[in-house]
Amino acid sequence: MRPLYLLLPILTWVPIGFAQGTGLSAAIQQLPKCAQTCLSTAIKDSPCQTTNTTCVCTNAKLQGDVEGCVLQSCTLRQSLTTKNLTATLCHAPVRSKENDIRISNIVLGVISAACVMSRIIYKAVYSLGELGWDDYSVLAVLFAGLPSTIIIDRGIVPNGLGMDIWAVPFDHITNFVRYLYVLEVLYFLQIALLKLTLLFFFLRIFPKPVIRQLLWATVAFNVLWGLAFVVTSIFQCQPISYYWTSWDKEGHGKCVNINALAWSNAIISIVLDVWMLALPLFEVLQLQLSWRKKVSVAMMFFVGTFVTVVSGLRLQSLVHFAASNNPTWDQTDVINWSGIEINVGIICSCMPALRVILVRLFPKILGSTQGTSQPMYNKYGSRSQGMGGASAVRSGIGKKQSSIPDPHAITYTKSFAVQHGESDETSLVHLDEFGPKTSKVRSSNTSEVSL
Ligand SMILES: *[C@@H]1O[C@H](CO)[C@@H](O)[C@H](O)[C@H]1NC(C)=O
Ligand SMILES: *[C@@H]1O[C@H](CO)[C@@H](O)[C@H](O)[C@H]1NC(C)=O
Ligand SMILES: CC(=O)N[C@H]1CO[C@H](CO)[C@@H](O)[C@@H]1O
Q1: Three-class DSSP labels, 167-204
Q2: Which atom of ligand 3 is nearest to the CA of 445?
Q3: Within a 10 A sphere around the Cβ of 12, how many other Cβ atoms?
Q4: Fewer CB atoms inside 10 A, N or C side of the chain?
Q5: Whose CA is nearest to atom 8 of ligand 1?
């Protein structure tokens, strides 16, 4: 944590007209000596009387003077005490967004844990021995993510996250920064594992050697990237504890540029995401598919990398990451967005598997909206492998002959089939390559609409 040397504004945003009458001189007595001098001097130089709290609390020039003076002549701890006392005196509202982050953290954590567990349990039970590398790594993301969820709820929020720093006791601030450190290291681990999940998933569905080599190269890069950032973030300060003792500017130590660390990680992460979206898309574009199929397949990959969007949103919360002068308040957004990013990533990566599970559980409901015919469900059920696969959405492949067209009417046939074969997601890629097995729905004067 970079020292909070820009603790501004010390005395600003004081609501007008709240403070009344007495207590001003009593409050001044409680202030640290350095701040007392500042305040008395500033009051003397202002039109306010020493007893008029309203005037002292609302006079902008006086506040500016006190602020500049306190920052110069007091330590950071004294400045925080001053800010707390003056805010109390002037009845400044106590802000808090603890509950928002608590709720979002728990809800997302529970949903993503439920997604992962149903994916794993379903696969383990219904397709014995079919757990793939992507399943193991999504499980690893979950295990790396659980501590974060717990730390946010039990550790960092009780120590001041979502509050203004001057409302937080000093020892809580130290704990807060300590938990922030753990969360940062865990985040670097989680984001790398999350990308591994997606890469292993692609490795499962793409058979061509060229793309597999590229994917393996990306896996290697991703592992190195993850390791590099985890190790660097663990040792970013010398001594390590300087990370959480340095907030008051009183200790001695050295840190790498923490902001640069967070930023470079985020930028590389986004570039990797784009690359990991481009690879499969490029592969799909080369297939002999109609553009509609290409779009639907592309959508599937986009769901997998939807998290890129969240990463982008998270960037703006990183702007002031380590330079914040009110970290317990400002870090809320970073922590919140990081949690959203990881959990949305987990949920997205489980989507294809969840879809298979849902279709199996509710064949009637889901089936009727998709217009698939009954035998298709049997395929889901009897399939022995690849439950977690991207449901290879292949439009217009399963033929469902509609009723004999009335020669005098314009028939509108909506044909949509979800095909799952032995090869599961793989069919998405190969079957189409080696001769289209598509038999189109055709009937004269029929407009065919396939999704
Ligand atoms: C205190 O200051 C405010 C505004 O500066 C002024 O309107 C008010 O009359 C003052 N009150 C007293 C008791 O002097
Ligand atoms: C001042 O600090 C105490 C705890 O140290 C806190 O309870 C109180 O809300 C703070 N006051 C303001 C105005 O932030
Ligand atoms: C089989 C059939 O009904 N064919 C008809 C399709 O529609 C055109 C006119 O739009 C008719 O001329 C065909 O007889």
Answers
A1: HCCHHHHHHHHHHHHHHHHHHHHHHHHHHHHHHHHHHH
A2: 6
A3: 12
A4: C
A5: 55
CA distance 161 to 143: 23
Q: Give me 80's structure tokens.
A: 């925080």
pLDDT in tens, the chain (451 residues): 444 433 334 444 343 333 444 577 777 888 888 898 898 888 888 888 888 888 888 888 888 888 889 888 889 899 999 999 988 888 888 999 999 999 999 999 999 999 999 889 888 887 766 788 889 999 999 999 999 999 999 999 999 999 999 999 999 999 999 999 999 999 999 999 999 998 998 898 888 899 999 999 999 999 999 999 999 999 999 999 999 998 888 888 999 988 889 889 999 999 998 898 888 888 888 877 777 777 777 776 776 667 777 777 777 777 766 667 788 998 898 899 899 999 988 988 888 778 778 888 887 766 544 444 333 333 333 333 333 333 333 333 333 444 444 555 554 444 443 344 333 444 343 333 333 333 333 333 333 322 2
Q: Is the CB–ligand 3 distance for residue 404 below 6 Å? A: no
Residue ranges lining ligand 1, Cβ < 6 Å? 49, 52, 54-55
- Is 406 close to ligand 3, i.e. is its CB under 6 Å away? no
State the burial class of residue 53 (Cβ atoms within 10 Å of its Cβ: 0-12, 13-18, 19+). buried
Say yes or no: CB of residue 409 within 6 Å of ligand 3.
Answer: no
For ligand 3, atom 7, the nearest C-alpha belongs to 445
- Considering every ligand atom, which ligand is closest to the CA of 52? 1
Q: Where are the domains of the chain?
A: 24-90, 97-361
Whether 444 lines ligand 3, by a CB cut-off of 6 Å, is yes
Nearest to 143 by CA among 194, 200, 199, 198: 194
Handedness of CA 291, 297, 300, 301 (dihedral sign): negative
CA of 440 to the centre of ligand 3 (A): 19
Atom of ligand 2 nearest to the CA of 87: 13
Fold of 97-361: Rhopdopsin 7-helix transmembrane proteins (1.20.1070)
Q: Is 72 in the pocket of ligand 3 (CB under 6 A)?
A: no
Distance CA 290, CA 277 (A): 20
Nearest Cα to 200, choosing from 304, 278, 117, 118? 304
